[in-house]
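note to self — DONT lose this again. spent like an hour looking for the file last time. sequence + predicted structure for the chain T wanted, 360 res
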Amino acid sequence: MSNTMKKAGALMVAAALFAGCSGTAGAASQSASSEPKTQTSAADSTIHSEISTAIDSTVKGSSQDALLNTLMSASDDDAKAREVWMDIFDKTAGQYMNTFELEGDGEIYEYTTDDDSGFVDNHFLYETSMQTLLSDGAADLYSAQYRVVDDSYDNFESGTGLLMRTGDNSTAFTAELSETGLDLIKGTVKDVKTPKLSRKDLPAMLIYDGLFTDGYMRSVDPVNNASLYTYDLQEDHDGYVLNIKVKDLDAFRKQASTAAMITLTDDNRPALVLDEATGETWRVKFNRSGILEEVDSNIFHANILEDGKDTNDKVYINLRAKNEVDHFDDAREFVAAFNPLMDKIQDGSLKAGSEFTLED
């Protein structure tokens, strides 16, 4: 396991990995799904053909990635843009042969008001660290997602995780973490689950979730609601940068307040409520072949709704995050430590309430 395991983290697996997922306060939950919200239209077959052509062109080595051009031309149509994004996620996962890690760090600034005048006095800054690991085996995919929140004094606040083996020997569990360190994770099994996504769908959905949600449920995002944003694609010295920002703040707020939450997990993930947001920007970095490399986001101001808390007690936040995708260099060590743990989950030796340790 890599040293980035030092900080782990809220379960962030893609849409409806498990049956029984639900929405959150303030919005109607959409039914469980293995992908972000999708729609079927007569244009789908056309855009699929365009995407296939773009992928073929890129594989052959075009000087400018055709798939990104397709995304730009589709950015005013949510359904078309969503489909292109999913192909980009598939292409990125394939580049790493379904063995990669997503590493993210973020900062949450809390306010008692919807402007800069009211910092929360106690621990107004929270630091988040999240990681997604995926390794491809002969019969199964092995994935683990962690997120840890520290206060402004670097004291551990909370940590949660989702560990899955998907394929011929599918099983999974959610966890509350009690200790994280170099190549060490300790915690308690919260709930044993059956993964719902297939081996085929999981890699792309992990990339979507790890790069574009920051561990929250959202009612809108650039993948599902491209038409709410402006897309500006620029050539960089070693690839491309896509700058994304809110197009019309009033339309953005209206959609955020009326749309159902995109339900990602059943782990009581907090909801990021954007109907009072004053701005949101994204910077998405691609290499020359259109492979995703990193995503920076800055959201200001949002509200957080957490399970069991008074929904009238609003907390305004500025959330800044940077998430990167890279090779998973310690994949063999990870699988060697991971498989025995998942065997115990599958045979019932470990169950809800059991303590566990994952180390290599």
